[in-house]
Amino acid sequence: MRGWVLGLLALTGLVVVMAAIAGWIVWRHPLAVDARLSRWALARAGFEKRNLQGPNGRLIVWEGGAGPTLVLLHGAGDQAGSWSKVAPALAERLRVVIPDLPGHGGSGPAAGPLTLEMELRGVEAVLAVFTGGKPAVLVGNSLGAWVAALVAVDHPSWVSRLVLVDGGPVRGDPHAPSLQPANRAQARRLMETLMGPDGKLIPGFVLDDVVRRARVGPIARLVESADEMKRFLLDGRLSEVQAPVDLLWGEADGLFPIAYAQRLEAGLPAARLTTIAGCGHVPQRQCPRRFGEALAKILESAPPAARAGDGMGAVDASR
């Protein structure tokens, strides 16, 4: 009896220690824990993780579903798990391909500066293998939207249509908050800019991790090559994007506000703007249900036609 009690106490102590360790990890590295959980969610939903050799190292690509190919491209500092809350529903009727962009998630290079050309060439390598150069729908968020637009310019036969989510290939506001906050106060301002009022709810320990990651993560590595990125801007050249474009935008996004989306809509040959009330810069994470519904509606509809005169009016997805 005594041995049983001692064993139970030892097991209880082990559980408490493990819980304490897990709690410390979540407290110290919440962004890494979130990334791990989101990738597990993709695996649980039936997505298979694949490896391929890209121009700058290994590329990790998640694939699931069957049907026409839909490629989801995440933003700077994020990874494929960004789409984990919306990808399973899309995979019910589409073949969904989700890469970790170069230098993000499990994709190389693991160190050194990241350039926009690396991101572009990495996505080209993914498309060459997973689509065989056949037309696919590209959905890109933030940096992923920029890369998707560049792919459409360089390889028009590879892209049947684009959905750009809170991002694009023209200059943003030079006075926007830095993506590399130096302290908790700056991190909070950044999150409020990205998320709107919801950014005020981010716990302090998460903000501290945002500051830590900003110093050493993919965003810091991209900032090292900021000057190189300028040659990939399409200011005054949006007419080169011949694929039809849907702009799917969080109305609360303060980094690339609605005015930015309207500039894209006015300059692109065939574009249509859909807005989502209450959502910020990464709507697939912040409000996945409404984002998923809006994206599904877009994909079920005919692509926007080239405008002969006045632009198409914006559609409010919250109505």
Features:
single chain, 319 residues, alpha/beta, Rossmann fold, 9-stranded mixed sheet, 42% helix
Describe this structure in words.
The radius of gyration is 21 Å and the shape is globular. It has one domain: Rossmann fold, CATH 3.40.50.1820. By secondary structure, the chain is of the alpha/beta class. The protein contains twelve helices and nine strands. Strands 1-2-4-3-5-6-7-8-9 form a nine-stranded mixed beta sheet, sandwiched between helices. Helix 1 (2-28) crosses helix 2.
Record the SSE blueprint.
Elements: H1 2-28, H2 30-44, E1 48-54, E2 57-64, E3 69-73, H3 87-90, E4 95-99, H4 116-130, E5 136-141, H5 143-154, E6 159-165, H6 184-195, H7 204-216, H8 218-223, H9 226-229, E7 245-250, H10 258-267, E8 271-276, H11 283-286, H12 288-300, E9 315-316
Parallel strand pairs: 3-4, 3-5, 5-6, 6-7, 7-8, 8-9
Antiparallel strand pairs: 1-2, 2-4
Helix pairs in contact: 1-2, 4-5, 6-7
Could you please say which CATH topology applies here? Rossmann fold
CATH superfamily: Alpha/Beta hydrolase fold, catalytic domain
| Count of strand segments | 9
What's the architecture in CATH terms? 3-Layer(aba) Sandwich
In the CATH hierarchy, what is the class? Alpha Beta
Query: What string, H for helix and E for strand, traces the elements in order?
Result: HHEEEHEHEHEHHHHEHEHHE
Helix content: 40-55%
Largest sheet data:
9 strands, mixed
Mass-distribution shape: globular
If helices are DSSP runs of H or I spanning 4 or more residues, what is the number of helices?
Answer: 12
Percent strand: 15-25%
Content-based structural category? alpha/beta
